Amino acid sequence: MEDDTLDATAADTDASGAPQLRPQTLVLTFYGNHVLEEGNHGVYSGSIIDVLGRVGTSEQAVRSTLTRMVNRGLLRRQREGRKMFFGLTPHAADILRDGGRRIWEHGAVNEDWDGSWTLLGFSLPESWQRQRHDLRSRLTWSGFGALYSGLWVAPGHADVRGIVSELGLDAHVKVFHARADEFTDIGLMIRESWDLETPAARYVAFDERWADGELASGDPIASRLRLVAEWLRIIRTDPRLPVEHLPPDWPARRAQETFRRTARQTEGPARKMAREVLETMVLRSA
To answer: What torsion do the CA atoms of 57, 59, 65, 69 make, to the nearest 10 degrees?
Structure first.
């Protein structure tokens, strides 16, 4: 999965301190909230413009984003009279299901680590700077940290065959699954190989923004859209390191409790409002 698919690394904030989530992030989150489980449904562009307008996205930004997402194979469109309806492609549906698993199944706190590690070593020609950059970016996105310059590590059994093959680097990469010797200080290794400050700060900021429930007390469809988009942005950039080797005050647990509590509070009202304001139709088979 490309690291810009959900723009999860966007770090800018607005005047209130809220993350500035890009329109594509919000569009996909909207579809994950209200369309994914409905099957082959499309949503009228005017409905999408209305919902994203509730979180501050302009009509022009929504329209241009929808067009780009069609061109990128994330959405498909179908005209019905004078209206245009947009539905998910299978590729986009897979992306959203993956995000759903990260949110609802895996969570932000890795308490079920089995003690194993995935080691990936690579050696690329000096002139392959672009390939090296692409591989490192994809490994970081997949939760790997740099143990040494050409040796990367991730907790658990990470399947990187798709990444390596997509980049055409099968002949240059070796992957092993192993356990650390007792001699190895895993806590120190984690601190040296991963940036812990950035995800920790994001969890703290999220909890501070949503803990009192005030943000979820207004427009339920807008509140849930921003809630899920902000949370997914955080956990997609968190390598889910084993919690037993993280600082004792690791803020992911408290932030996750806040997210799940607010998600429960907003789910019913957001679905009810979606039924009232969204114009949808079953799309013809592609």
So the answer is: 120
